[in-house]
Amino acid sequence: MNLFLRGLWAALILLVCWQISATAVYAQDTPVPQESQVTAVKTKHFSFGIRARDFPIKNFSDMGNKSTATTTFAPQPAPKDWNFTTATKSPFWGAGLSAEYFGGPNWTITAEVLFNRVAYTKQTNVYWGIDNPATTFDERQHEFFTENTKGYLFDLPILLHYRPVHNGGPWSRLFVSAGPTLRYATHVTGSLTTISPNDVTTTAPLVVTPTERMVIGGTLGVGFRVVDDFNIKTIPEIRYTRWAGSTFSQDSTVSPRNQLEVGISFMF
Asked: pLDDT value at position 31?
């Protein structure tokens, strides 16, 4: 299923690139109507649409893979070795709604509400006692914990889009964007499976509280803005977000503070 979705996404990106190339060639011979050329009466200042995005790198998304280890000495009578491993189960894609204010031929402001589902599995292995180095088997006592957690993330970016090239031609469709993004985590639930030293397995609900339920970040982007004769806007864009904190931050479960995404919007 993931391969099919990634293939569909790649085909969509290729379609957009083809449209941009075709528009650029057409622009060499025929002036392409720009929003700045529309009379004041017909200018449409507000547009609404949809946006889809992809996280191409897991460790630059809403959750990545990570491992860590530590040793505790108190209050236990014997030292304990803790090994933590978190594996992301989050979908690579997200989607949402977008609104745009057209302020002039060179700048626009967009506000979006983007939805993502976050999911991960955290395994904790605890060992204590004495291990005989002469054997291949670990004689220490051990206990295993497996946490399965899922929840919803909502991102609300407000970005200013600015066109640095104003003299027409295909490069006049290029824009840079910048602005704040707010992230909110909700409906976070989990379950905990424990395997005791006596190999007894139990499963129970787990209360998971995000480290920071609401976090803010700064977003930078670059993309193209293509407007057809029906005033439908196709906007492919690459964005980078630096978060001020981590939604989850405990042991190996740490939400990346650097986020890279590739997205596309359709405004009507």
From this structure: 46
**pLDDT reading at 28 higher than 60:** no
Residue 5 has pLDDT above 70, yes or no: no
Looking at the structure of the chain, the number of domains it has is 1
Q: Which of 177, 152, 147, 151 is nearest to 162 (CA)?
A: 177
Of all residues in the chain, what percent carry a pLDDT higher than 70? 83
Q: Domain range holding 148?
A: 2-267
Cα separation, 171 vs 189, in Å, equals: 47
Q: What is the DSSP string of 164-204?
A: S--S-SGGGGEEEEEEEEEEEEEEEEEEEEEE-TT--EEEE
Distances in whole angstroms, Cα of residue 38 to Cα of each of 67, 100, 159, 231: 56, 17, 24, 11
pLDDT > 90 in the chain, percent: 69
Distance CA 237, CA 54 (A): 11
Q: What share of the chain is helix, strand, coil (3-state, %, to 5)?
A: 15, 55, 30
